Amino acid sequence: MSKKYVIANFKMNKLDAEVGNYVDELKEKVKDMDLEIILSVPFVSIKTAVWHAQGTNISIAGQNLNENDFGAFTGEINAEMLCAVGANAVLVGHSERRNHFKETDVVINKKIMKGLRSGLLSVLCVGETLFDKKNNLTTQVLQKQITESLNSIYANELSHIVIAYEPVWAIGTGVIASKEEISNAIKTIRSLLVDLYDEKIASEVKVIYGGSINEKNVKDISSISNIDGVLVGGASLDVDKFYKIACAFNTEKKTKKKTKSEQKSK
Ligand code: 13P
């Protein structure tokens, strides 16, 4: 069974020293876990986070990237810059970027291409607004976002893309999508991938969920059969809560192994 993704999105939170301390605490707790653990930290703390996470099972991501190469783009950071400081992943098309910074699917597509071609894992965020949901537009919205964002992306590049279904109405609201809504959205995303690529590719792409995940509701969400992990905002800011969320996705096999070695050491 392939590894699940447990991804933190710190958004615009935590000072550099706090990020370092967080990684130090987390790495001890998760060291035996068989998961893809990724922390998306503010740009200015990527280097610190990478340094503290060296030799661990934690990867560091940017929360955005500019779609251009080097040049006159004041205040922006490109894919090569992220790679140069040790990030190996990046969030792309988060709804806060779409909403506050007017990112379109066309721009998001360019960002994914730049990320992929620099070797970054791209976590593509998609999801409908409350208005879309109320008007039964979820499938239509996902179709547009996925089709346009993945335009000209080759099938063999999809292993470097994780799709995060993050309904906008569930982000930071405490209103989590139901298991059925999540499972249906994941099915919709996979069937769109079948249309764009093929069955095999569609079944291999990782699809995760984000929106008001916390240490209490994660157990229930982790039981959704077609979910490949979670993208966590608010609850990821607390290392203990994030650890508990990771525990819910840690594979059984590893837990059993740990129990055996624990028994030996007694
Ligand atoms: P919350 O977990 O705070 O709802 O945020 C989700 C999110 O936006 C992760 O990218």
Summarize the SSE layout with pairings.
Blueprint: E1 5-9, H1 16-30, E2 36-40, H2 46-53, E3 58-62, H3 79-84, E4 89-92, H4 95-100, H5 105-117, E5 121-126, H6 130-134, H7 138-149, E6 161-165, H8 179-196, H9 199-204, E7 206-210, H10 218-222, E8 229-232, H11 239-249, H12 252-265
Parallel strand pairs: 1-2, 1-8, 2-3, 3-4, 4-5, 5-6, 6-7, 7-8
Helix pairs in contact: 1-2, 1-11, 5-7, 7-8
The structure holds 1,3-dihydroxyacetonephosphate (13P).
List keywords for this structure.
266 residues, alpha/beta, TIM Barrel, 8-stranded parallel β-barrel, 45% helix, binds 1,3-dihydroxyacetonephosphate
Question: What does this entry look like structurally?
Answer:
With 266 residues, the chain is α/β, with parallel strands linked by helices. The chain has one domain: TIM Barrel (Alpha-Beta Barrel). The chain has helices at 16-30, 46-53, 79-84, 95-100, 105-117, 130-134, 138-149, 179-196, 199-204, 218-222, 239-249, 252-265, and strands spanning 5-9, 36-40, 58-62, 89-92, 121-126, 161-165, 206-210, 229-232. Strands 1-2-3-4-5-6-7-8 form an 8-stranded parallel β-barrel, surrounded by 6 helices. Helix 2 (46-53) links the parallel strand 2 (36-40) and strand 3. The longest helix is centred in the last third of the chain and has 18 residues, at 179-196. It is globular, with a radius of gyration of 18 Å. Bound molecules: 1,3-dihydroxyacetonephosphate (13P).
